[in-house]
Write a structure and sequence with these properties.
The protein is α+β, with helices and mostly antiparallel strands and 352 residues long. It folds into 2 domains: 144 residues, 2-Layer Sandwich (60s Ribosomal Protein L30, Chain: A), CATH 3.30.1330; 169 residues, Alpha-Beta Complex (Phosphoribosyl-aminoimidazole Synthetase, Chain A, domain 2). 33% of the residues lie in helices and 24% in strands. β2 and β3 form a beta hairpin. The radius of gyration is 21 Å and the shape is globular. It starts with 11 loop residues before the first helix and ends in a 14-residue tail after the last strand. The chain binds adenosine-5'-diphosphate and magnesium ion.
């Protein structure tokens, strides 16, 4: 039935992660009226009842690609696996309700290790008020694989998509950026030190926030509620899993708009600034390309400026323009440079 006529071999890296998804899924047509949003956003949106819509999203974490067991305690891994999924639910302006958890495990893992993993999942489920309603368990030849699907609800018509930003909207981000990536660099460095000298005791006091953002990230459950309390309806929204520039480009490409992002407005924690100085890294590059921040990036109408401007959770980092103006970073020196995506990609040296 499935005769394989295709004998040419194209390397996946030629397409990149998003090119590959587009390539593989371009022929899928929506058949059901209940599919309000299919592939292409943080989560799919499905018709549910007369008041609500359902959102569904799934993520896959693979040992050695997304996590390293030498510095990722299993409890944290379980917690993080839940959080990265919930972040996509909140990015739709929805409330997370249920998850399913599927694992592939090799016999390298004793039951006690999996108990720890599930302790983390349990803690996250409690904190984010979600039910664990199913999953699947299989054996794996080598490492650990975790796939979580999250389900949420949103009032009918209130889901916020990536493709609805409009010219002159303001670009806003929650929290601060770049810390999780630097946390990973610190952990990698300590791992190397430990390999050479197992007696060494790392002094991580200067990096506590960075390491916490890498090992125990939180999803911004509070933001949809906060925006609703402020009576602000975002015009578009996405979560920052792959780095600010990659996510801005998603919003701009899908909304068919341009954008000016102001370098001096990008929110950075003091530990990010000092660690970048120490490591001679450019903090803007880290914020733009680091990834794993799990903050929300959204656009609002210009008239909502007074409701957003003084809120400590938000930074207004730019504004949407006409498509013809392109997607640009306005540097501290007032130079305009086109923004390019250097986010995480599973198919080069980084992870997705
Ligand atoms: P996110 O980073 O928010 O998790 P992704 O970039 O992974 O989103 O995915 C973008 C979109 O492509 C989503 O709608 C996702 O469901 C869809 N997608 C990703 N991989 C596949 C796949 N293998 N088959 C079908 N859809 C996919
Ligand atoms: Mg997302």
């Amino acid at each position: 039935m499935f005769e394989n006529k295709n004998t040419s071999k194209t390397n996946i890296s030629e397409l990149g992660e998003f090119g590959l998804i587009d390539h593989l899924t371009k022929n899928f047509k929506i058949k059901h009226e209940s599919t309000i949003k299919g592939i292409g956003d943080d989560a799919a949106v499905l018709a549910c009842n007369s008041d609500e819509e359902l959102v569904v999203t799934t993520d896959l974490l693979i040992e050695g690609v997304h996590f390293d067991m030498s510095y990722m305690p299993l409890k944290h891994l379980g917690y993080k696996a839940v959080v990265v999924n919930l972040s996509d639910v909140y990015a739709m302006n929805a409330e997370a309700k249920q998850i399913t958890v599927s694992i592939g495990v090799s016999n390298r893992f004793p039951v006690e290790a999996l108990e720890e993993l599930y302790e983390g999942i349990h803690t996250a489920a409690k904190y984010y008020n979600i039910d664990v309603v199913g999953g699947d368990t299989t054996s794996s030849r080598t490492g650990l694989v975790i796939s979580i699907t999250a389900i949420g609800t949103v009032l009918k018509g209130k889901a916020v998509y990536r493709d609805t930003a409009k010219d002159t909207d303001l670009l806003v981000v929650s929290g601060d950026l770049g810390a999780a990536y630097l946390g990973l660099q610190i952990l990698e460095r300590e791992k190397k030190v430990f390999e050479v000298n197992p007696q060494s005791q790392p002094d991580l006091d200067a990096y506590t926030y960075l390491i916490e953002r890498q090992l125990k990230p939180e999803a911004r459950k509070d933001i949809p509620k906060l925006l609703s309390d402020l009576k602000v309806m975002p015009t578009a929204m996405i979560d920052i899993s792959d780095g600010l520039s990659s996510e801005i480009l998603h919003i701009c490409k899908q909304s068919k708009v341009g954008c000016n992002l102001y370098e001096d407005k990008i929110p950075l924690d003091q530990q990010v600034i000092s660690t970048c100085e120490e490591f001679k890294l450019d903090s803007t590059t880290i914020a733009l390309s680091g990834g794993e921040d799990y903050e929300l990036l959204f656009t609002v109408k210009m008239e909502d400026f007074p409701k957003i401007k003084a809120n400590p959770h938000f930074s207004i980092i730019g504004h949407i323009t006409d498509k013809d103006e392109g997607v640009n970073l306005i540097t501290r020196g007032n130079e305009k440079i086109p923004l390019i995506a250097r986010g995480w990609s599973s198919f080069d040296e980084k992870t997705s």
